[in-house]
Amino acid sequence: MKALAASALLTLALAGCASAPTPLQQDQAYTLEWIGERPLMDYSHLSLTLGDDGRAYGNAGCNHWFAPYTLHGESLHFGPVGSTRKLCAPALMEQEGRFLKALERVQRWDTSHEGQVRFWLDDGKALRFWPEES
Q1: Is residue 44 part of a domain?
Q2: How far apart are CA 58 and CA 66, in angstroms?
């Protein structure tokens, strides 16, 4: 009985030391890991930064992208997305297109216990990001 109680106290103590999820922050760069149910292609780098001026921007894998956004609590919406017009390999362009179209379908965001930031689309799928180290 004493061992069980000690184990329960240790579990509670360790749970209290776990870090709380990091809130979504403006002017913080995030790196995309997944688009819906698909991970990114190897060696591709897609990123997002929410500027404090209401403009989001980043790298879409081949091109730089930009869009207005509104953030109110857990609600997040992007306006029309624009980008530069460089051409890359067809597979990279397909992935970029999926990402840019998905941004315009974002409804809300949350953070996992591991610190991953998730942007939830209108179909229940998510864009999953990791904060970049400063």
Answers
A1: yes
A2: 7
